[in-house]
Amino acid sequence: MKKKVILDVDTGVDDALGIMLAVRSGQFDLHGITTVNGNVSLEQATVNTCKILQLLGAENIPVIQGANKPLLRPVHYEHRVHGKDGLGGALRDMQLHKKPSEGHAADFLVDQVRSNPGEMTLVMTGPLTNLALALMKYPELVRDVKEVIVMGGVVLGFGNITPTAEYNMFVDPEAAKLVLQAGFPSLTLVGLDVTRKALLTEEHIRELGETDIGRYVWESTADYLQRYYDRNGVRACAMHDPLAVAVALNPELVTTKRYYVDVETRSDLCDGQTVCDFQNRLLKEPNVNVCTDVAVDAFLKLFIRTLREQRTDEQENQT
Q1: Which of 13, 69, 74, 261 has CA atoms 20 to 30 A from the CA of 314?
Q2: pTM value?
């Protein structure tokens, strides 16, 4: 049986690559994609998600809009990395006809988990606002969900939005704190410690070939590659969100260890920092499976092979 999955996204460049990996893999029963304010506005994230699904020929997958702002804080977009439209200008000329479904993402998450107790995997690649709202509505979500995979945080390295904080945690640290402290029996943190090792280069992109998807990846990542080079001296696209999706596909791609992790919400310098108690100094039960290493070559081969496949299972069923 296929794994039942919901993606929660703030669709920028790497969220889009994560969606493409999830859909093209053919290994998920993708119940829906929920959108949240983050890299771009909620409205833009929703448009981008619908465009990616339209590009993939997967318009049957429902898209449900969620929170248009963090729980307590003002919005903080990341146009410098993802461009004004979130996709680096790619698909700007696409005529969009896919529309989002009615309802709110938090209600959708609750309804789907309650309807599939013990079976639903949630892959969260944006700020955690929608999941926090769902927990407020239905605390038993913790009991009923199968697993939660979160792209976010950094426990050993430096941040990517402040010196200490990763972007998704920084945008809505109150939501992140609520989610990490909720008591999920299986919550995996796919943070910058591993996603920074998973770098998509121009050579990798060339392997995708002269296809619609290959051309899209070239165009959408062009500015991202340049910005990463300017800051880090390496011409590459860090595969933050696709790695979280890949962990849902194959958990053996990463090495994890259970630790107690919390999120700072009351610091001028360190808001959004994920604090990992490596030495158990707080004497608290571990609450998170923290990714500490990744099989980079295996992940990138999986990504490239999946996107090079000509048709998804859904498309084959339609022919």
Answers
A1: 13
A2: 0.95
